[in-house]
Design a protein that fits this description.
Layout: H1 6-17, E1 24-25, E2 28-29, H2 46-57, H3 73-80, H4 106-114, H5 118-121, H6 124-127, H7 133-143, H8 150-155, H9 174-180, H10 182-190, H11 202-210, E3 216-217, E4 220-221, H12 222-242, H13 249-266, E5 276-281, E6 291-300, E7 303-311, E8 317-327, H14 330-347, E9 352-357, H15 360-367, H16 378-388, E10 393-399, H17 405-417, E11 422-424, H18 432-439, E12 444-449, E13 457-461
Parallel strand pairs: 6-9, 9-10
Antiparallel strand pairs: 1-2, 3-4, 5-12, 6-7, 7-8, 8-11, 10-13
Helix pairs in contact: 1-2, 7-12, 9-10, 10-13, 12-13, 14-16
C-alpha cells in the first residue's frame, strides 16, 4: 500500500471527520454549521467522501484491508466486512438502496422523508410475534406513540393532571405505566424478571423482549407472555379509571398467565413427528488428483471470522487460512470464507478442486443464476464465479458440520484472534486432532429426517 505523507493523510481524514453544512433559503446561502454527531450513514455527501477515501487511501488492491484504518473501530469493521468486485467484468449500477429491486419509487422516497426512524417503520418482526392480534395491535400503538396516556392528554388540554392514575406520584408516560409504576413493577416481579429488566427505552425494551424466544414460563413462550402482560396492565389501568375497579398485582398476574396459556394451547401446532434415521458422517477424501477445499464462517456478537483448509486426495494438509472480517452476520462470514478459499486455490495453481461448505445458504446463492445485481451478496457470488473460471474442473457441495470440523475451528480462531490474512503452510495446532480424525475417516452419528439423503453432500458441479 502506498504511504502518503502524514500531513496529507491527516488532511484526508479531516475531510471525513470534520463536517459542516450550509443551506440555501430563498436563494441565499446561510452560514455554515456543524452537526454534533459528525457525518452519519445516509448523509448525501457520505458516498463521495467514501469514494475519496477509497481512491486516495488505495484500499481495493488489498481488500479486505489488512492494516488498521484511521477510522473509528465500528466503521473500520463495517468496511472490512463489505464485499467489493475483484474484477471489472461487471459494470457499475445506479440503484436506489431504499427499495428491494433498486428502482426508485415515490413511495420509498416518501417513507424515507417522513418515516426515517426505522425503529417505528420497520415493524415486520412485531406482527410475527406469537400473540393474539389484539396484543399485537397494542404493541404497534406503543411503537407509534399512540397510547392516550395522562401526560399526552394533558399536553393537548384534554386532561387536567398528567399524573399516573395508579400511583399518583409521577407523570404517566408509556414507559411509566407499562413498566416503572410501582403497580406495574409488582406485576413484572411476579414473573421473577431480573433487575436489568427495568432498563432501556420503551421501544428497545419492547423489541428485545418480543424477540426473546429463549425462555418460557409454565409452557408459555416469554415473548407471548410479555405481550399479554403489557396489555393486561393497560386494561387494569383503564378499569381503575373508567369503572373504579381495582385489582392487586398477584391476581392480575395470574389472570394474564391464564389468558396467555390459553392462547398458547389453542394456537399450538402439533405436526406429526417426522420419522428420523441415524446416519454416519465423516470427512470424505477428494477424488484422485483432486484437492478439497473446506470453508466455514463464524459469527458471535456480530463479530465475524472465516476459515478454510485445502487437502490433497490423501487427506494431507496443503494450506489453511483464518481471517477476521469485522462485523456483520454469519452469511457474510460464510461467503467471505468461500471467496478467500477459492482465491487461495487459484493462486496455488490447482487444476481440480472440490469445495465443501456446511452453509446451505452459500450453496443456494451459488446455484441461483437469477441473483439480482442489486443484492448485497452479488459482488461476492460474482467474484467466486469469476475465480472458478480459472479452474478446469471444480465441484461445490454442501456438507454437514460433522464433516467440516477443521474449517469451523479455523473460522472461530479468526473471529476470536482478530487476525487478518493468517495463512499457514503447516497445519496449525488447533486443527491437528480434527485432521487426524478426518484422515482416519472416523464417523460421527447424526440424526436426520428420512427424507434427507443418506450421504453427507449435495453435489453442484460446474456443468
Amino acid at each position: 500500500m502506498f504511504n502518503f505523507p502524514d500531513h496529507f493523510t491527516k488532511l484526508i481524514m479531516s475531510c471525513l471527520q470534520n463536517v459542516s453544512y450550509s443551506t440555501q433559503i430563498n436563494g441565499k446561502i446561510t452560514n455554515t454549521f456543524s452537526p454534533q454527531r459528525g457525518i452519519r450513514q445516509g448523509d448525501p455527501i457520505s458516498p463521495y467522501l467514501f469514494i475519496l477515501a477509497i481512491e486516495y487511501l488505495n484500499l481495493l488492491p488489498n481488500w479486505p484491508p489488512t492494516d488498521s484504518l484511521a477510522l473509528p473501530n465500528n466503521i473500520n469493521n463495517e468496511i472490512t466486512s463489505t464485499f467489493v468486485h475483484l474484477s471489472n467484468n461487471t459494470p457499475d449500477l445506479l440503484a436506489w438502496k431504499y427499495s428491494k429491486d433498486g428502482v426508485f419509487s415515490i413511495k420509498t422516497a416518501y417513507n424515507l422523508i417522513f418515516n426515517h426512524d426505522t425503529e417505528t417503520t420497520n415493524l415486520k418482526w412485531l406482527w410475527k410475534a406469537p400473540a393474539h392480534p389484539r396484543e399485537l395491535f397494542f404493541l404497534w400503538q406503543i411503537f407509534q406513540n399512540a397510547l392516550p396516556t395522562a401526560k399526552k392528554l394533558h399536553n393537548i388540554n384534554c386532561l387536567q393532571s398528567p399524573l399516573c392514575p395508579l400511583c399518583l406520584t409521577e407523570e404517566e408516560t408509556p414507559i411509566h405505566i407499562l413498566r416503572d409504576c410501582q403497580f406495574s413493577r409488582s406485576v413484572w416481579l411476579f414473573f421473577k424478571v431480573p433487575p436489568s429488566f427495568f432498563h432501556n427505552t420503551i421501544q428497545a425494551w419492547v423489541k428485545s423482549n418480543i424477540k426473546d424466544t429463549s425462555s418460557n414460563i409454565h409452557n408459555v413462550p416469554w415473548n407471548t407472555l410479555f405481550s399479554y402482560i403489557l396489555r393486561g396492565i393497560w386494561l387494569a389501568r383503564n378499569n381503575k379509571i373508567f369503572q373504579g375497579k381495582t385489582v392487586i398485582p398477584p391476581a392480575l398476574a395470574q389472570q394474564i398467565l391464564q389468558k396467555a396459556s390459553e392462547y398458547t394451547f389453542l394456537n399450538s401446532n402439533h405436526p406429526p413427528i417426522s420419522p428420523k434415521q441415524t446416519i454416519q458422517i465423516s470427512w470424505l477424501k477428494p477424488k484422485p488428483n483432486f484437492y478439497k477445499l473446506n470453508v466455514g464462517g463464524s459469527c458471535a456478537e456480530n463479530q465475524l471470522g472465516s476459515g478454510g483448509i485445502i487437502r490433497d486426495d490423501k487427506g494431507n494438509h496443503i494450506i489453511s487460512f483464518s481471517h477476521y472480517h469485522g462485523t456483520g452476520n454469519v452469511i457474510i462470514a460464510e461467503l467471505w470464507a468461500l471467496q478467500l478459499g477459492i482465491k487461495l486455490g487459484v493462486n496455488l495453481g490447482l487444476q481440480k478442486l472440490e469445495i465443501e461448505s456446511d452453509s446451505n445458504a452459500v450453496i443456494h446463492l451459488m446455484e441461483n443464476q437469477n441473483l439480482p445485481n442489486t443484492s448485497a451478496f452479488f459482488p461476492v457470488i460474482n467474484n467466486c464465479r469469476f475465480l472458478l473460471q480459472s479452474l478446469p474442473e471444480w465441484e461445490i457441495r454442501h456438507c454437514y458440520r460433522e464433516a467440516n470440523k477443521c474449517a469451523d475451528a479455523l473460522a472461530n480462531h479468526g473471529r476470536i484472534s482478530k487476525l487478518q490474512n493468517s495463512v499457514k503452510n503447516d497445519p496449525p495446532a488447533l486443527i491437528l486432532d480434527h485432521l487426524h480424525f478426518d484422515q482416519k475417516s472416523c464417523h460421527i452419528p447424526r440424526s436426520v429426517p428420512n427424507s434427507r439423503p443418506t450421504t453427507n453432500v449435495f453435489a453442484l458441479e460446474n456443468s
